[in-house]
C-alpha cells in the first residue's frame, strides 16, 4: 500500500468517526432539549383530588376548579368543572418548588388553598367546601372599629369589621341579595367595601346608605375581615348611626381632630389607650337591631368669639360691685331728701294747728 493510499484510508476513517460522533452528539442534544424544556415548565403529572363537604362530612361537589402557578403573576394552568367527588386531572405541569393556588367554587362561593408543587405531586389533595345558608345564627361582629376624620367640609369614615362565624354545623352564610346589614349615614358617598380573604382582597357590594345598608359578602366559618370607607358632607350636629342586624360584642370609635365632640350616652372615653391625634371611645355591646347615634359637634371650634355681656358697658376702673351699687342708686332715686320733705310738712301742719287753737 502506497503512502497516498494509506493517507486516504486514514482520512476516510477519521472523517467517518467524526461524522459518527457528530450524529451522536446531535441525537443526544435532541433527546436532552425536550427534557430541559420540560423541567423549566414543570413535569407533567396526573394530580388526584378529593372534595369533602365539611358541613355533612361526606363527599362533596364543586361548580368549578382552577389551578394557578404563581410567579410574578398568576398563570392559569387548569380551569375545569370537577366531574365527581374524587377525580384525576392528567398531565398538569408541576414544578416541585413552585407555588400554586387552587380555587374551588361551590354555590357561587370561592374557597382557596395555597400549595407547593411537591404537595400536589404527593397527592391526593383533599379540598373542603361548605353548604351555604342565609341564617345569621351563630354569627356576630366581634370587633367594630369606626374611624372618623373631619377634613374641612367633609367627614371621612372607615369601618373595620371582624365577623366570627361560629355556626354549628359549619356553614357559609351567604344571603340573597345581601348577607347582613350595617348602618351607614344617609348621604354617604364614595363607598368602597373590601373583603380580606384569599390571595387577593375581594370588592363587595353595599346597598344604598342608611340604617339598613346591606352587604353582599359570603361569611365562611371562622373569622372574616371587612373594611368599608365612605365620605359624608360635614354639618354641625351630624349623626353617625351604629347598628347591625348582627350582635356587636365589642366596638370603639376614633375621632380626629381631638377637639371634635361626640355626644352619646352609649359610649365612654378611653383615656388609657389613646392614639396620637385622635380621641378614643369604647362602646357597650349592642343587640341585633339596636341603634346608637353619635352626634358630632365642633365644640368651641364651631362657635364665634365669646362676648362678656356683663362687663361690656362697665366704666373703666369700676368693679361689678360698684356697678351694682350705682345701678341701685339710679333706679332707687334719693331716699334721704324725701324723708326730710315729709318731716317739714308734718312740722308745718303742727304749727298751723297750734295757732288756731
Summarize this entry quickly.
The protein has 4 helices and 23 strands.
Task: Give a topology summary.
Elements: H1 3-41, E1 43-53, E2 58-59, E3 64-70, E4 74-80, E5 86-94, E6 99-106, E7 109-116, H2 117-122, E8 125-129, E9 132-133, E10 139-151, E11 154-165, E12 172-173, E13 180-181, E14 189-196, E15 202-206, E16 214-216, E17 222-233, E18 238-242, E19 251-256, E20 261-263, E21 267-269, E22 279-283, E23 292-297, H3 320-332, H4 335-356
Parallel strand pairs: 1-8, 9-12, 10-19
Antiparallel strand pairs: 1-2, 1-5, 3-4, 3-6, 6-7, 10-11, 11-17, 13-16, 14-15, 14-17, 15-16, 18-23, 19-22, 20-23, 21-22
Key phrases:
alpha+beta; Immunoglobulin-like; 3 domains; 10-stranded mixed β-sheet; 4-stranded mixed β-sheet; 40% strand; elongated
Tell me what you see in this structure.
There is one protein chain. This protein is an alpha+beta fold. The protein has three domains: 43-129, Carboxypeptidase-like, regulatory domain (Immunoglobulin-like); 139-302, Immunoglobulin-like, CATH 2.60.40; 320-356. 22% of the residues lie in helices and 40% in strands. It contains four helices and 23 strands. It has helices at residues 3-41, 117-122, 320-332, 335-356; strands at 43-53, 58-59, 64-70, 74-80, 86-94, 99-106, 109-116, 125-129, 132-133, 139-151, 154-165, 172-173, 180-181, 189-196, 202-206, 214-216, 222-233, 238-242, 251-256, 261-263, 267-269, 279-283, 292-297. A ten-stranded mixed β-sheet has the order 13-16-15-14-17-11-10-19-22-21, with no helix packed on it. Strands 1, 2, 5 and 8 form a four-stranded mixed β-sheet that branches. A four-stranded antiparallel β-sheet has the order 4-3-6-7. A hairpin with a 5-residue loop joins strand 14 and strand 15. The relative contact order is 0.09.
